[in-house]
């Protein structure tokens, strides 16, 4: 099921072709010279998002990522490979009291700059295009 997206990604797996999302560094945490995480602020932008609710958190991330890869690798209204932006963001949702995680996990792909004004529509109805306000992201 993932053979075509993986082949497309492999053909286009040139690090120079990966677009880093523009951000402002807020904080950088290191331990013994190794980067633990960065706290970043991303500007207002459009993202392709999918929310999965599998029994296991990791399964939701994997399935959501696979669906996004299909969108990136031609299963969109343009029929074209859209290009990779990094990082792919994972959002863990919590209950109303913010005391426990819910089964819902959102996986999001920042649309490349050239697609921000008119992003291709996903062929998968589970994927939605959202415009996010400026957003804080923790990146490893």
From TrEMBL:
One of the record's GO molecular function terms: heme binding
Domain of life: Eukaryota
Family: Belongs to the HEBP family.
Protein name, entry field: HEBP2 protein
Gene this protein is translated from: Hebp2_1
